[in-house]
Amino acid sequence: MADEDRLRWDAKYEGRTVPVADASEALRSVLPWIPASGPALDIAGGDGGQAVWLALRGLEVTLCDVSGVALQRARSLAEVRDVGLTTVQADLEEQPLPDGPWALVLCANYLQPSIWKGVAKALAPGGVAIWLHPTVENLARNPKPSRRFLLSQGQGRAVFEAAGLECVFADEGWVGGRHLCRLVGRRLTHQSAPH
């Protein structure tokens, strides 16, 4: 399955236009919680538009994705924009997250609830986790992604809390033409944090 995913995403990125260093409207909407500096991890960040945008803002960004084609495109974009970018090719269904600690972990449009416990553990003290993902309500206006890749109402927040992340911002609504769950969390530090 991992090779199928990699090949499928490689083919998708081969045919895309040149990436630009920019943040989605959803990422911009949580800008107050994005740290100004420190190490950041962009999970399943594709060809690096948002990762390079974060690097331009002063973060030391590591981009992790299954597609080698996407990562090459991200490295090229970082070079053009003259910023550092570390890339890691990994299938996070089978491999662990890159080691932290991270001041920021961003995950946009990637549904794998099991990674969030690892994210919580990998956050630096005071670190922030941001998850931006479409919900089932998105199907009212958009045929993709299909139902199996969407969050149900309240599911994202429940995943964060089960992973030991305290939600400091949680919203489900229409942003940039998509119905998204937008979550910002910090690792719980007191004794009753879930394991």
Describe the structure.
Helix 5 (115-122) links the parallel strand 4 and strand 5. It is built from six helices and seven strands. By secondary structure, it is an alpha/beta fold. The radius of gyration is 16 Å and the shape is globular. Mean pLDDT is 89; it is low at 191-195. The protein has a seven-stranded mixed beta sheet, sandwiched between helices. It has helices at residues 2-14, 25-28, 49-56, 68-81, 115-122, 155-162; strands at residues 38-43, 59-65, 86-89, 102-108, 123-134, 165-175, 178-187. Helix content is 28%, strand content 29%. Helix 3 runs parallel beside helix 4.
As laid out across the biggest beta sheet, the strand order is 3-2-1-4-5-7-6
Question: How large is the radius of gyration?
Answer: 16 Å
The span between the termini is 29 Å
Order of helices and strands: HHEHEHEEHEHEE
Short précis:
The protein has 195 residues and is of the alpha/beta class. It has helices at residues 2-14, 25-28, 49-56, 68-81, 115-122, 155-162, and strands at residues 38-43, 59-65, 86-89, 102-108, 123-134, 165-175, 178-187. Residues 191-195 have low confidence and may be disordered.
Which descriptors apply to this entry?
195 residues; 7 strands; alpha/beta; 28% helix; disordered C terminus; Rossmann fold
Topology readout:
Layout lengths: L1 H13 L10 H4 L9 E6 L5 H8 L2 E7 L2 H14 L4 E4 L12 E7 L6 H8 E12 L20 H8 L2 E11 L2 E10 L8
Parallel strand pairs: 1-2, 1-4, 2-3, 4-5
Antiparallel strand pairs: 5-7, 6-7
